[in-house]
Amino acid sequence: MSEYIELRWHARAGQGAVTAAKALAEAAMSGGKFVQAFPEYGPERMGAPIRAYNRLSNNPISIYCQVLNPNVVVVIDPTLLTGENVTDGATEDAIYIINTDRSHEETKKKLKTPKGRVYVVDATKIALETIGRPIPNTPILGAIAKVTDFLKIENIKKEIESSFGKKFGKKIVEANHKAIERAYEEVKGG
Q: pLDDT band for position 167 (50/70/90)?
């Protein structure tokens, strides 16, 4: 791992990006990493575009500003691929993880990132089929674990159990575990 890995999340309010960024940070921290997780809001209304950020490192993090040059870009709402410049400032070799039912090839053409690695997963479909709600944030965590080398799926599942267990119960935790596992297996690209 370089000095630190920076992630930028693109979503709409209500899709769980802030919750996912926090869960990612907690899972990474339980794996021995140093972490930061923070949101950036515009107009705070349901459906408005939002961004969230993470920094993950093997060493203490001494930078405290917005993520400007992410190594990983996560797009939870695929409509933002045309409404926002999700590639803005991303490193040349950034990893893009997109929630979409479109193919990897089609999505990569749309992003116009010749050196970036683009991965796709239909996290919304997975969420509907496993959790029963179209909230793709939990499945996306499984995709992140698969395509990066700084997070283990076991740590994500432990974090979901810890944060959801008392609040929602065993059935919801198991459904979210299944969603994470499916996204881990179904993510495609490179």
A: confident
Token code pair at residue 154: 């076991």
For the sheet with 72-75, list strands across it.
34-40, 49-57, 5-12, 72-75, 95-99, 117-121, 188-189
Domain boundaries, the chain: 5-189
| Pairing of β 95-99 and β 72-75 | parallel
- Are 56 and 35 in contact by the 8 Å Cβ rule? The answer is yes
Q: Which helix (H) or strand (E) holds 96?
A: strand 95-99
Cβ atoms 120, 105 nearer than 8 A: no
CATH class of the domain comprising 5-189: alpha beta
Does the pTM surpass 0.90? The reply is yes
Are 162 and 95 a contacting pair, CB within 8 Å? no
Which amino acid is located at 148 in the chain? Answer: T
Q: DSSP per residue over 128-176, as a string?
A: HHHTSS--THHHHHHHHHHH-SS--HHHHHHHHHHHHHHHH-HHHHHHH
Closest CA to 142 of 163, 121, 162: 121
Radius of gyration of the CA atoms of the chain, in A: 15
**How many CB atoms are located within 10 Å of the residue 170 CB?**
10
Q: Which residue has tokens 């021995």? A: 32
Residue 1: the pLDDT is 42
